[in-house]
Amino acid sequence: MFNKLPSCLLSVPLLLSILVMALPVIAMEQEIPIHPHIVDIQQAERIILVTYVDKHIDRIPVGVVNQSYRRRGHYSSSTWSQRIASNIEKDYQLKILSQWPIKEIGEHCVVYLINEGQTIAEVIGALSKDNRIASVQAMNTFQVMAENRYSDPYYRLQTHIKSLNLADIHDRATGKNVTIAIIDTGVDTNHPDLKGQIQESKDFVAQKSSRSFGDNHGTAIAGVIAAKPNNGRGIVGIAPDSSVISLKACWGIKAGSLDAACNSFTLALAISTAIGMNIDILNLSLTGPHDPLLARLIDKAVQEGIIVIASQADTTDEKSGFPARQPGVIGVRSLTNLTVQSTDGSSVLSVAAPGEDILTTLPNGTYDFVSGNSLATAHVSGLTALLLQLKRNANNQELFTLLAQANEPSFYKVFHKARHKNVLNSRSIFHKRRHNS
Q1: Which domains does the chain have, with CATH numbers?
Q2: Active-site residue among 81, 98, 242, 374?
Q3: At 184, which helix (H) or strand (E)?
Q4: Which of the 8 DSSP states describes residue 312?
Q5: How many whole angstroms from its chain centre is CA 236?
Q6: Catalytic residue among 58, 184, 193, 291
Q7: CB-CB contact of 329 with 308 (8 Å)
């Protein structure tokens, strides 16, 4: 009976299998599981991060013909990596809190909780000898660099902008077509001076309680950079036409304060996301101990031509100074602090900027005067956006040279010269490299 079926029907299963193989692969975005312990500062001393190379990350399956619809920037780990993570968990009596592929550097990262009977030094020592593992480190904690000074939000005006002659600069540059990623707490996007100014927001600490003392610090940083001008209220940002992306990797830790914290895991998620979004400037108004995983990601960002700007620490010790002292990063301190610029032939770049009594935005439509290296860092990020709008071929060393002059009364004339040289539409060397790689 079956022998009498038309040959065309017999070929239907084969045809269907060919069609299935030819369908475009659309990578499904995976939610990253984040255990509450990860954002609990009290648990930080019992958490480690392990990475190992995974050449299978985002690999397209054999037999797929059409690859043109494969989406980028989504998390897609291999079963091989997950199996290795489980084996390590069993071998060392650990607990997996989260895991994710960092495709920007080709590594799989696993966050483990060690048992109370183990010491972190013993576990790290044992894991560092395991041939499966590329790196192992403790979970580091980072702090933002800002504080409130006055209860009266209009005690003073934006003196740092007046001294900059910003109105004259804005006649020539406002940060248009320059993308800035702010990795911080979240931003109050409904603030009257910030509404419509934040192009996109992502939250990497969603598991943290919504009552964790708000998004004060990130809102303050966003106001310095991008507060809306000429709206009849509030303040004006240094680069109001820049495209600002808010990447929430920190959380408030004290009610009524700008104090906030973040850690290796949340920052790694945010930095890798920023790299994948082809941003121009990365603002890191925070400091902490040297972190190997974050150092590799920041190196990648610098290689991709991203201008990384970070807050310097007020003290020099092992618990602070990173990432401002990372090669290729522009470190920033407030003008009131002693700032030593790079004169010893090292690759450390350091500039000073206004950071005391800066009037800026705070959640719920409020304003206040805030001080700290965080504000100085935002100031420099805004200036960098203005410079990049007019001189897209500037690299971090060239920008550093210009930014070091930003406190001179004649700095605004830099924008006159840039306009006369007709560099407004010139394309960036690093911009080409990023998008052609």
Answers
A1: 36-139 (3.30.70), 143-436 (3.40.50.200)
A2: 374
A3: strand 179-184
A4: P
A5: 24
A6: 184
A7: yes
Record the tokens describing residue 225, joined without a space: 């950079």
CB 305 within 8 A of CB 435: no
| Cα–Cα distance, 67 to 65 (Å, whole number) | 6
Rounded average pLDDT per 10-residue block, the chain, 437 residues? 44 41 42 82 90 74 36 57 95 94 93 93 96 95 71 48 82 96 96 96 77 82 94 88 97 86 96 97 97 97 97 83 95 73 58 92 92 95 97 91 91 78 39 41
Catalytic entry in 37, 170, 217, 379: 217
Quote the CA–CA distance of 155 and 165 in Å, as a whole number: 21
Residue 290 annotated as catalytic = no
Q: Is 339 helix (H, G, I), strand (E, B) or coil?
A: coil
Please say if 416 is a catalytic residue.
no
Any catalytic annotation for residue 217? yes
By CB atoms closer than 10 A (0-12, 13-18, 19+), residue 332 is buried
Using CA atoms, how far apart are residues 372 and 370, in angstroms rounded to an integer? 7
pLDDT of residue 31: 72
Neighbours of 69 (CB within 10 A): 10
Tell me, letter by letter, the H, E, C secondary structure of 350-392.
EEEECCCCEEEEECCCEEEEEECHHHHHHHHHHHHHHHHHHCC
Q: What is the pLDDT of residue 263?
A: 95
Amino acid, res. 173:
A
